[in-house]
Q: What sequence folds into this?
């Protein structure tokens, strides 16, 4: 649930928004009962106290247990933030609860904790001179600020009669005042500094998806090739959204920037195909390098998303010395710095079986956890899209 500010005394409570996430073979009567209660509440209060929408993971309507489908149905990534997300299941709900669904719900909780989500083009930021217009506000003119002429004149209009009397009185008392208009040529409209309204804009920041790939021996023995396939699909999707992508690989005793932030899909695929495998697992070094690259993106005004592919089993410490205990502690410490920076992150567990150490690493990082063995490339791709989904406005 999202935290809502309290409405002022006497004011109507804010509209609450619900999303009903329908699973295959969901029970229609459960959904209908919930929606009918909200509809009646709106009718009794004579206002839009509640709004709701139906969603599935991919946007295709799910069939209920009676065979019917409801429309319109949104993809969960398009539904945005809501006060409550109701998961509507059926009698065999355990078959419909997939790792992709769990990852999507975890992403929703992560985005709420971090204060909102971004869309495929990056998070929103206020801008002085470019972007989508958001109306006007009182303010002084300055560098890069646009005067909103209509709102400024509207603010000055009610005071014209009073100001004309003040001007006439000023002329009578100081006929030679330098700042006074001659009595025979009164101003048509007098605008003062307190009337100034400046335009407001909302601008979308670019998204930079940073892939951090574990290319060590343990990953190579498991599913590095399959991980590469998933990343290639994600790269193509980032290209469609015109996101920038970057790629880091860690193996041996450190991390290497395989691909600086770019929009070139060809360069990205070439870097991925030439990625070597084998050696130790300097997980802390990989996370540190990813954090540095992400913070550099933030300084450029971009929105970074970290995608870490690893089994979580570190064996090389930050100083390059071997040893699982120290390497694991360093990896957890590095993960905490990512969480402290407030970055959006996804950890894909590439081991054959989900590893508790990888899940703990994701928790320390504040990242959504998705075990790759139980998720195909399409599910992984969908999780990335959910990481960059914007709230409905």
A:
């Amino acid at each position: 649930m999202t935290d809502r500010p309290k409405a002022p005394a006497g004011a109507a409570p804010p509209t609450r928004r619900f999303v009903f996430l329908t699973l295959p073979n969901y029970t229609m009567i459960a959904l209908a009962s919930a929606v009918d209660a909200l509809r009646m509440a709106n009718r009794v209060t004579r206002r839009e106290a509640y709004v709701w929408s139906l969603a599935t993971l991919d946007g295709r309507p799910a069939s209920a247990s009676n065979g019917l489908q409801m429309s319109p149905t949104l993809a969960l990534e398009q539904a945005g933030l809501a006060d409550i997300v109701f998961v509507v299941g059926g009698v065999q709900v355990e078959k419909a609860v997939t790792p992709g669904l769990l990852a999507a719900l975890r992403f929703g909780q992560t985005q709420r904790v971090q204060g909102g989500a971004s869309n495929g083009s990056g998070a929103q930021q206020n801008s002085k001179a470019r972007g989508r217009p958001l109306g006007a506000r009182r303010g002084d003119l300055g560098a890069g600020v646009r005067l909103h002429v209509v709102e400024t004149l509207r603010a000055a209009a009610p005071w014209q009669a009073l100001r004309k009397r003040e001007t006439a009185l000023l002329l009578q008392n100081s006929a030679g005042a330098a700042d006074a208009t001659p009595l025979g040529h009164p101003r048509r409209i007098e605008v003062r500094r307190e009337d100034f309204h400046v335009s407001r804009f909302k601008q979308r920041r670019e998204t930079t998806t940073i892939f951090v790939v574990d290319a060590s021996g343990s990953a190579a023995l498991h599913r590095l090739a399959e991980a590469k396939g998933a990343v290639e699909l994600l790269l193509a999707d980032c290209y469609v959204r015109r996101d920038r992508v970057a790629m880091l690989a860690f193996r041996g005793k450190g991390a290497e920037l395989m691909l600086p932030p770019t929009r070139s899909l060809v360069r990205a695929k070439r870097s991925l195909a030439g990625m070597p495998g084998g050696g130790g697992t300097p997980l802390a070094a990989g996370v540190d390098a990813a954090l540095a690259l992400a913070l550099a993106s933030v300084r450029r005004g971009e929105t970074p998303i970290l995608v870490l592919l690893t089994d979580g089993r570190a064996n090389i410490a930050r100083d390059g010395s071997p040893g699982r205990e120290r390497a694991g502690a360093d990896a957890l410490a590095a993960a905490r710095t990512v969480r402290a920076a407030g970055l959006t992150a996804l950890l894909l567990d590439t081991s054959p079986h989900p590893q508790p150490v990888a899940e703990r690493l994701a928790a320390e990082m504040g990242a959504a956890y998705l075990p790759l063995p139980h998720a195909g490339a399409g599910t992984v791709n969908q999780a990335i899209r959910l990481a960059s989904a914007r709230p409905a406005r």
Notes: The two ends are 16 Å apart (CA to CA). Residues 206-387 form a domain with the Rossmann fold fold (CATH 3.40.50.410). Confidence is low (pLDDT under 50) at residues 110-127.
